[in-house]
Amino acid sequence: MSYQIGPGMFVVLRYRVFDEEGEALHDAPDALSLVIGYGGLLPAIEERLEGMREGDERNVELSPERAFGRRNPKAVVEVDKSDFPPDVAPGDRFDAEGEDGRPVLLQVLDVTEDTVVLDGNHPLAGQRVRFEIAVGEVRPASAEELLAAEKRLEGAPDGGNSPLEALVPVERLLRGPSRG
Length: 180
Known about the structure:
alpha+beta, single chain, 2 domains
């Protein structure tokens, strides 16, 4: 039996992500397994996948508003250099906690004698993004898969990834060492 993608279906997708200039963000396709309708994908992508079957392929192009948002100038901040290791350099990354308690990855843009300039924007913020998606599997989700999807949707500790983090982990886009 050939199933179509829709709410409550378990799917396995292979995908590649391309930035505004058409450059692939990584060499090989990534794979993602999830239950449709439970926040595992950006809503704009779920809409475009509706009705697809195993073996189908589709390109999905998203505006900045429907993908990673516009760049927020308030997400670029200057911090006292004394709060950082002495060898801090542009390109370094640091894990921090946002105002809402969620983890935020900050990239060092510049280092002066007294300050470090950090950017909390997603590296693809403000860009049109294209996804090449191939459907590897479509079937009804099991009771266990539905329960796990519900927990992730509710923000349970065993879930955690937002649709953006699941599709394009920020860590893979940034250059330089990561420091905790």
